[in-house]
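Handout, page 2. Input:
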Amino acid sequence: MGKINLLSQETIDKIAAGEVVERPASVAKELIENSIDAGATSISIEIKGGGIEYLRITDNGSGIEKDQIQIAFLRHSTSKIHDANDLDNVRSLGFRGEALSSISAVSRVELITKTKDSLLGASYIIEGAKEISLTDVGAPDGTTFIIRQLFYNTPARKKFLKSESTEGSYVFDVVEHLALSHPEISFKFILNGKEKLMTSGNGSLSDDIYQIYGRQIASNVLDLDYKDEQVSITGFIGQSVIARGNRAFEHFFVNNRFIKSSNLSRACEEGYYGFLMGHQYPFFVINIDFTDSAVDVNVHPTKQEVRFENEPEICEILTRIINERLRKREDVLEAHVDEPAAKPQPIIIESMAVKEQTFTPPANTENASVVKSSFESDVTEEDDIIPPPKDEAPKKIKMPEPFEASRLEKIKASITQQIHQDTPYEKKFAEKNRGGEKYEQISFLAKEAVKEHKIIGQVFDTYWIVEFDGSMYIIDQHAAHEKVLFEKTMERLKNNEMTSQMISPPVIISLAPQDILLYEKYHEAFERLGYQISSFGGNELAINAVPGNMLNLDPKSFFMEILADCDSYKASDSFDMIVERVASMSCKAAVKGNNKLSIPEIKTLIDDLLKLDNPYHCPHGRPTMISFSEYELAKKFKRIV
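Output:
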C-alpha cells in the first residue's frame, strides 16, 4: 500500500465538482433550480458555444445579500435546510449546498445580484474556486450568473464533452423539463443570440405544452386529475396519434421535480396497452405530488432519482387512471387526403387588348442579355433574344397594353368564379368546420348512432365502408374481429370461465430441458388459458385439451410459439404474459383479410365492437377503423377551396 496523502482543497473541490457538474446542462439545471427556489417568476437562459464557452442565467428572484455571497460558494452551505431532520420535508429543488462550490471550481463565474431591500447590488467574480473580486454595482432586483469557459482548468473533463450543438440540446432539455414542471414561471431560452423558447408563465400547463411542442401535440392530449389521501396525480397524456418511437416524450415529475424512473414509465406504458402498437411510446407530462414524508429525494447528487413509499401501489394507480382516461375518449384515426403542392399555372386572359409597337433589338449580344432581363416575366427560359442581321429591317412585335393592377384582380376573380361554382356546397361545411354554432358530434359506436349507420359495402374483401354523420368510416375486419375475440377471452379469464376442448389422441411434444423448465415455471398460466397438459415421460409433454375458442389453430405449433416467448418474462409478470398470449391467440383466430363477409356478419361485428370499452385499437395497438370526413373528400375533388 502506498503512502496516504491528505488531498489539497483544490483537488477536493474538483473531485466534488465531478459528482455534480458533468456538462453545461448540469450547470444550467443547478442554477435554474436555485432561481426557482428564490421565488423567481421570470427566468432567462442564454448560451453560446453549447454552454461551454458562455452560459447566463438571469432571474427576478429574491437575490443574495452581499455579506452572504462568499458563504454561498462554500461547500455544503445552503439556505434550504438546517439539519438532517429537514431532509424528510424537502420541498425545494436544491438543498445539498454543493452546486455553487462545484461550478466555481471548474469555470470562471461572475455573479451579479441585488435584494429588494438593498440600494445597490453586488458583483462577485470567482475563477477556479479562487476569489477575484467583490464590489458594489447598480443592478435590478434578482440574480444573474454568468459562467464562462467551463472545464478550462480540467481539460481531461472538457475533451469528453460532445459537440456544441449536442451540448446545447442537453441544456434545452433541462429548460424544457423545468418549464413543464413550473408553468407559473416564464422561461426564455436564447441560443447563440436567437430566442428558441418563450413560455407565458400564466400557470397553464397546456399552454406550455403548446409553446414547447406545438399545436399538433397540444391538440391531442388528455388531462389527468386524480387525488386521494396519499397522492395527487395531474398532467396530460397524449393520444395514440402522437406516439413516438422512443421515450423522449415521457416526462415524470415528483413534487415538481423532474425524475427518471423505469418503474413509473412502465406503469404508464401499461396504461396504454391496446392503444399503441409495439415499439411505440406515449407522450405524457405527469406530476405526482406526495405528502412530504413519503418522498426521499436525497438519493443521488443530480436529484433525478427519488424513492417514495408504496411505489407498487402508485404504479398500479397510474396504469389504471391512464387506461380509464383513454377509454373515455373516442379515438378513431381521422385520415386526411394530402395533396402534392400544385405548380402555379399561368392565367390566360383572352380579352386583353394589344397594340403594335416598334421594337429594335440591339445589334450585339451583350445588350441582348440586358433586354432579356428586363422582360423576365414575359419571356420563358427557352426563348432567346437573337439580334437580326444588320441588313434586315427591325421587326414589329405585339406588346401588351398597360393596365391597372385592380383590373387584373377583377379578371382573376371572374375566372375563379367560373371554375368554382359550388359556393352553396362550401357553405354546407361552414358551421361544421369553419366556425359558427358549436357542432356536437355523436360517437360512431354510440348506441343511438348505430341505427344511422349506412353500410356501403366491402372492398378488397378486407375493409368495410360505412357512412355516418358526414364521414366515411373504413373498418378493418381482421383488426375489429381480433379486438372482439380478445375482449371476450379476457372477460372469460377474469371470470374464470375459460373452456377447454379435449383432443384425442393427445398431441405429444418433445422439448429441450430449458423448455421444460419454462413450462414448469408458467404452467399455471397455460392452465388458465384452457390447456390441459401432462407429463409424458422424459422431456415430453402430452397436450390433452386446448382452449375452447382456438380449435382452428394447430395445438402443437401454437403451444411452442407461446413457450418461446415465455423466456422474456419474469415470474411476477405471469399475468402480463397471459394478456400478450391472449392477444396473439385472438389474432390467429380472427377472420383474415381477403375473406368476404356478408352484411349481416358485418352488422354483428359492429354490434360486438359497440360493447367494448376500447373498440378503436386491436390488442397490438393497430387501429380498427379510420375515417374520412365529407369535407376532406370535397376538398380533394375541388368542390371547395
